[in-house]
Amino acid sequence: MADNKSKIDVPIGPPTDYGSRDTIINEVKADDGYDNYNPVEHRNLKNATTDFGSAAHVLKSSLGTGLIAMPNAIKNAGLIVGGISTVIVGIICAHAVHILIKSSQVACKRTRSPKLTYAETAESVFKTGPKGVRFLSSFSRSFVNVLLCVTYIGAVCVYIVFVSTTVQQLMEYYTGVNIPIRLYILTTFPTILVLGQIRNLRALVPLSTLANLSILIALAITYYYIFEDLQPISSVKMVNSIENFPKFLAIVVFAIEGVGVVLPVENNMRNPSHFLGCPSVLNVTMTIIITLYTLTGVFGYLRYGDKTEATITINLDTRQIPAQMVKMLMGLVILYTYGLQFYVPTEIIKNGVQGYFSARYKSIVQTCIRFLLVLCTLIIALLVPDLDPFISLVGSLCFSVLGIAVPAIIETVSCWEHHLGTLKWRLWKNVLMVIFSLFALIFGAWVSLQEIIALYK
């Protein structure tokens, strides 16, 4: 039996016939009779998570700063357009995650691999795809890895800024001292340094569960403030200016997408077959996520109207104890989430460099990598300490491509020779997904960069 961490010595013919990973990927095809290979049977499930733990991770990967930024997103689109569009974008993001997981499962069977990361899935799909695209396999792996690192480093930078902003509000209320936001950002360093050293997803389950409970309490109090004094519908815009729509799109994509986390979660499940299907971990969690985002966005905007801030917690009256509880709870939630999101880039970089070091230095190298990445996120947060444009920039530049376009391309290549469907409907569907992603990328980034440039003028 091949080692779970290696896909090199895997038999594809008689028991004595062993080949390189590239040979396997180049020779094995979708219909070569290897459907009886079950990747799960060959996984190391020593630290596997339960369905509940996996659902907690998926929920936590999407329930963070994006949730409380939704009223601001709806403000940029208008009440009706924003509410309907949030549901549509949520369904698109959920579908993108679904086809990515499905493509990865197919790629595992084709290459007889126990499990594949996002980047390995892209590489394997291209190598086992049509001959005309096989030369892109190495590039696709590197592209996805770089994009994952940039995306999740950007996301945790947003978390640092949010936590610092929350602490600043509370401290100014209780002390009356106005301290620059960058000093608060610096004070987060010891905490995120500790969180950045957590190396096992299973060890993060208690934090994800605690974060989800904290979110429920914070949301309950937030909804109390929202529904306490809802403004009449006539006081808000039903449809906002078209030039603000890309910003709405970027915020929603940033908010809902957790594509970099889902494959590690599925790979680490005790029962991976429960991740897809109906009902399933993915369908249940995404339904909860889309519902919460739509409700929070629509009613949050209806409550605060044009005065809606980058996150709804900023709108809450700091003089009231329940509002202070919300701010503290959401601050803790984001801190808990830091470790989960930070797991993605650290694993990619660790796997990329550990081959250059002796096994005896493996732990030291990983510690240094995590320390340097934490320091990197802190520096970026210091450079852009403003939430509003930061959230939309990360969403447009990273999550739109990584969470929508790349899964659509991977599915197209994976299904090209046999499974595009009647009238090639999968191809046309995925073309529309890529166009949608590029729209969010180009126009969302343009609007966000303009706002960031304006901050330094």
UniProtKB/TrEMBL annotation:
Ranges of residues in domain Amino acid transporter transmembrane: 54-449
Signal peptide: none
GO cellular component: vacuolar membrane
Membrane topology: Multi-pass membrane protein
Pfam family, one: Aa_trans
Membrane-spanning intervals of the chain: 77-101, 143-167, 179-198, 204-227, 248-265, 285-304, 325-344, 364-383, 390-410, 430-449
Name under which the protein is recorded: Proton-coupled amino acid transporter-like protein pathetic
Source organism of the structure: Cephus cinctus
Gene behind the chain: LOC107265313
